[in-house]
Amino acid sequence: MKHKSLEIKYSEYNSLDDLSELGQQLVIKARAAAKNAYAPYSNFHVGAALELQNGEIIIGNNQENAAYPSGLCAERVALFAANANYPDSAVKTIAISAYNAKGLIFDPVAPCGACRQAILESENRFEQPIRLILDGKDKIILVEGIHNLLPLSFDQNALNG
Ligand code: THU
Fold first, then answer.
1. Known active-site residue 21
2. pTM
């Protein structure tokens, strides 16, 4: 038996101003998208803004349903819309913001497990890592590639291997 460990890497920023111009723009778009979320059941409004290789920016927000599991997270709404409209353009960056009843959430919003899996699929599809910008009022986290949030992941290699 061997004990093993994996390292994950991320950077923390204390202010939106410390991000690149494009990073700031994506966060602002994610925040705006969150305002248009349909989240009457959780009152947790999430927005995502994607930067594509072709320069397009695609937004998404969570879409809830009275039959709870029929709803979808902001990240997947944005990812699937991007892939539906621009099937040949890789996703370069995804910024995620969220508001609860008190406003912009304090700790950076982390994508749920299912969204991490969908982000991994997009990375593999376009053979390119996706940068994640996780927005929060207190700090902003920048992650270079979903493997940092989803180590030991399941992908197409498992199906074929
Ligand atoms: N939600 C997202 O849209 N993205 C996340 O990363 C976390 C959760 C949504 C799903 C549901 O509509 C609400 O937030 C509460 O879980």
1. no
2. 0.96
